[in-house]
Amino acid sequence: MLLITRPDPKCRAFVELCTGLGLSAYALPTIEFEPLIPRELEVISARSGMIQGLRDGLYSWLVFTSGHGVEVFSDIWRSDPSGELPVTLQIASQGSGTSRAIKQRFAGLSIIEPNAGGHTAADLLQGVIAAEERQSGIGEQKLAGKRVLIISPLKGRELLPAMLAENGAAVEVLRLYRTVPRTLRQTEADLIREFTEQNRWRDAIVVFFSPSAVRGFHLQLGSLLGEQDAAAASRALTAAAFGPTTAAEVQSRGYQLILSNTGADDESKFALALAEHLRSRRIIR
Q1: What is the pLDDT of residues 241-254, one digit of tens each?
Q2: What CATH number has the domain bearing residue 186?
Q3: Residue 13 is part of which domain span?
Q4: Is beta strand 2-4 parallel, antiparallel or unpaired with respect to 111-112?
Q5: Fewest CB atoms within 10 Å of the CB: 90, 121, 155, 253?
């Protein structure tokens, strides 16, 4: 069985993809997204100024790190019917799923994706630099003087902003939502207890798509099982990770990583790799 931990609705979409390949897959979202609340005045004030800066054409790049960030930003942007994104603005996306969300919300945009089909911060940085080289030629600091706005969750990872800044960009981060642990339904909590009590973790693969989902799952184990049983489950379970940063978080928690797509950013290929792995273990035919 595959336990898919990403937030809905993408969780159920990946479950459907897996079941279409003949796999037994169960939706177990461990995190969810929350909008920022109005009393977070600093964030709201900064958001207002950055959005106006975008409308005034002050930024060279707008970078999205998740599909949910695209959706939240689009809703804010569309609330003011003053026009489309500036034609001079370049758009960057950290992965094909995020790119699809951009195309759905903002038709006709040209989108820069991570270099060589990757999906790490370094891959995206190289994609942005390559686009600048095509426009301006090669210089020592290819992003010098470029203002970059990154759409991110509260407490989002700081690696990409730091790498862009090291290459000369003036980086600002617009934090529009938060990622929080999700409260499990009773049937979901019972499934985790059952796997632990019957020592079934090695019969399943827990599938992670982000470091925050790993952290959310780890919190759920501790909350439901207690420290001793959670530690035993962590040693017993096997995991698959979508992307190198997620794989690193999986290993940091002591889980056995049996599959990671550190190459192409393609969920269909990831599902096929899961199916092939299960066939190799003769769990499915």
Answers
A1: 987 778 889 999 99
A2: 3.40.50.10090
A3: 2-31+181-280
A4: unpaired
A5: 155
